[in-house]
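Protocol step 4 of 5: obtain the predicted structure for the target chain.
Materials: sequence only (see below). No template structures provided, no constraints applied. The aim of this step is simply to have a reference model before the mutagenesis design in step 5. Sequence pasted as it appears in the construct record:
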Amino acid sequence: MADGVYAAIASEQGYAICNAGIIDLGDKTIVFDSFKTPDAAEDLLRAAHERTSHKVSYVINSHYHHDHIRGNQVFSPDTAIISTSWTREAIAKNEPQRIKSQKENVPQELLDAQSKLDAEKNPNRRRELAFWITYHKASIESLSQLKMRLPNITFEHMLTIHGAGRTVKLLSFRGHTESDVVL
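Step 4 output (structure tokens):
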């Protein structure tokens, strides 16, 4: 996107599900959103190191949805996980229930989506169903290895992070959720 600023764009067939960002601060690296699965987050961690050669010092969770936070667990224990206070509370409250619900329901949802895909003729609807099949497979394959890792640094409205070559500001807005972070 710019020198030292990279977009990690999820493919429709991959297990990342959301997009992410990698920002080189000059002496450390930020990862913005950590993907849905630990395996996808491992790929993101490798990509961050390959592009910046710096340790990932910060992971930003833009909001509480599981496709943006479940990769938190793959980052080093000394990597700070940052979100708004509201997002941290929403993760703590909703994620255990979401994991339980997915364990109970996603296998059937996968079968249902596959059955619908087999019968569907509309190419746009087939593409959407293929996405949901990938989404459900990603959930099933990652559920047994998930370890919730909450943000350990929170803020309310704005947080500035200074690096040797770049400074970033995190701002909180109500948008996709009650408390979204933009960088």
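Step 4 remarks: Helices lie at 38-52, 85-119, 123-143. The two ends are 13 Å apart (CA to CA).
Proceed to step 5.
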